[in-house]
Amino acid sequence: MAKNKTVETQDSVQAYLDLIADEKKQHDCAEIVALISQHTGLEPKMWGSAIIGFGSYHYKYASGREGDAPLAGLSARINAITLYLADDPVQKEAMLKRLGKHKAGKSCVYIQKLEDINKDVLIEMASNSVSYLKKQYPST
Question: In terms of pTM, does the model score above 0.85?
Answer without folding.
Answer: yes
